[in-house]
Design a protein that fits this description.
The complex is a heterotrimer of chains A (about 230), B (about 240) and C (about 45). Chain A is mainly alpha-helical. Helix content of chain A is about 85%, strand content about 0%. By secondary structure, chain C is mainly α. Classes of the chains: A mainly alpha (about 230), B mainly alpha (about 240), C mainly alpha (about 45).
Chain lengths: ~230, ~240, ~45
């Protein structure tokens, strides 16, 4: 059990070190997230007061769009020089590969969020009045669920030639319940009105996270065997 | 050398049940069952709509079932059944969605409402299509069998959560506009209508089983032919 | 009434369409079997 965790940490550290050396994926994701915000500011006039209503949705749209960009690279980058084969033939459990990848992806996406969400608030002139605690908790739960399912499907779609196109098609329908819950919870937390509402949505999100975490952890072995 | 028509007695029995059942079903729907007072004739779409939706979910459960079996022990047959079931599932999900939309247009004047059952069916459709995309991957069938089964299982887990989330979403945001739900079956249905509905569900389920077996046979034949072809090529080469 | 007609024509069109796809696959397979038998005779 502990070896699985330490192996996972090693893999995550490897990925992150790799990432911080080049900063390629990270900077691309951040720029892309800001670009998405820009496009949305053309679509919804930011000077309009009604635009406040779309902020909770936008937070998740930029997270998912930028996140998919990073997830695409997560396993396909391991295909170069047959690194994935190396990982698999090493004396590590398949689950620790999965856990390590989840950790690395989660860190990168969180960093992107730390840049992109303030940019979103600034560009849309949004005054934050909600509670920070709930905001961050909901962001955490939603992003975690997204990364749990996303990393799993990224490993699955890396086997296909057109993995960049396959991943969103596989991922988005599976994310839909999480996104419904996340947007609703975020709205309740940002408008600071009905925290009970936010809590019940948060419960649904945590149930989703736990369920899919267990399922992905169990099934990841088959993906590694199959690829 | 190779049997072309390998449909067994079960398929023949299914076929001889299916044809009269279909005709009786049409008779029941269009002639026997009473016309609904509020919605009029349009309500008759309902029978096939419910049947298709039921088969859509049934087919998905079958995909999940064969996916689990494939993971336990990969066998060509299981893999084929999961694939054909998904194909037929797409067909019936599309039918359920389209008939639902037409009915909605006729009775509430909108093609689409964000109603939990409708959203769940739509997302089910997307998961089916994604599943078929996974199966279109290139590579050995063992590899695809594993990957697609994994995706099938994850998809099956997802469907009830989608339903829960969407229902919750609707009741918290909007008041429920259309009575109990979309098909308004809550209590106010006459016994003839109920009987017709169950008969159409039965007929469409038989149709599903028939198509499933037929499709699986064809796919199995294709595999047999592939093997025979490589055999012959090897013979010629040697 | 028109909606009813529309609904049932969609239903039958799609079911018939899928059956046609299955029939096409079957024909393809029959063709391949014939070819295989020809090859078998040649050997």
């Amino acid at each position: 059990m502990i070896t699985i965790l330490t192996d996972a940490l090693t893999i995550a550290a490897k990925d992150l070190r790799n990432e911080f050396k080049t900063k390629q994926t990270f900077s691309m994701m951040a720029i892309f997230a800001v670009l998405v915000i820009l496009v949305f500011s053309f679509a919804f006039d930011p000077t309009n007061n009604a635009v406040k209503a779309v902020i909770p949705g936008l937070v998740w749209v930029i997270t998912i769009f930028a996140g998919i960009l990073g997830l695409n690279r997560s396993f396909t980058s391991e295909l170069e020089n047959d690194c994935l084969t190396g990982l698999r033939s090493g004396p590590i459990d398949a689950t620790s590969i999965y856990l390590g990848k989840v950790l690395a992806n989660f860190t990168i996406v969180t960093l992107v969020q730390i840049i992109s969400i303030p940019v979103l608030f600034i560009l849309f002139n949004y005054r934050f009045t909600g509670s920070y605690f709930w905001f961050i908790l909901i962001l955490f739960a939603g992003t975690l669920g997204f990364i749990i399912v996303g990393t799993f499907l990224s490993a699955l779609s890396a086997n296909a030639k057109n993995s960049e196109m396959l991943l969103p098609v596989l991922l988005l329908p599976l994310l839909s319940p999480l996104m419904i819950a996340a947007v609703q919870a975020m709205r309740a937390a940002l408008e600071n009105e009905n925290l009970e509402n936010a809590v019940s949505w948060l419960q649904l999100m945590s149930a989703y996270d736990l369920l899919f975490f267990a399922a992905c952890l169990l099934l990841f072995e088959f993906i590694m065997e199959g690829s | 050398m190779i049997k072309i028509n390998n449909s067994g007695p079960i398929d023949r029995v299914l076929f001889y049940i299916l044809v009269p059942a279909f005709l009786i079903n049409l008779y029941l729907i269009f002639v026997w069952s009473p016309v609904e007072k509020v919605m009029g004739d349009v309500q008759k779409i309902f029978y096939f709509h419910v049947g298709s939706a039921w088969v859509a979910f049934l087919a998905f459960c079958v995909v999940g079932f064969y996916s689990v079996l494939t993971l336990i022990k990969p066998k060509m047959e299981r893999f084929i059944y999961a694939g054909i079931s998904a194909e037929i599932g797409v067909l019936f999900t599309t039918l359920a969605l389209l008939t639902g939309m037409i009915w909605g247009r006729a009775s509430w004047n909108t093609w689409w409402t964000w109603e939990p059952r409708l959203i769940t069916t739509l997302i089910l459709w997307f998961i089916y299509v994604a599943y078929l995309f996974v199966r279109k991957m290139e590579g050995s069938w063992e590899k695809i069998a594993k990957l697609s089964s994994v995706f099938g299982i994850i998809g099956v887990i997802n469907v009830p959560i989608v339903f829960m989330a969407t229902r919750w979403w609707n009741t918290k945001l909007h008041p429920v506009v259309f009575g109990e739900g979309k098909d308004q079956t809550g209590g106010g249905m006459e016994p003839e209508m109920l009987a017709t509905m169950f008969f159409s569900i039965f007929t469409i389920t038989v149709l599903y089983v028939f198509l499933l077996r037929k499709g699986a046979q064809i796919e199995k034949m294709r595999e047999v032919i592939k093997k025979a072809k490589t055999n012959i090529i090897n013979k010629i080469a040697s | 009434m028109t909606y009813l007609l529309m609904g049932y024509s969609v239903i039958f069109a799609l079911i018939a369409g899928y059956m046609m796809i299955l029939g096409k696959r079957q024909k393809q397979i029959e063709k391949e079997i014939k070819q295989l038998e020809e090859w078998n005779q040649e050997i």
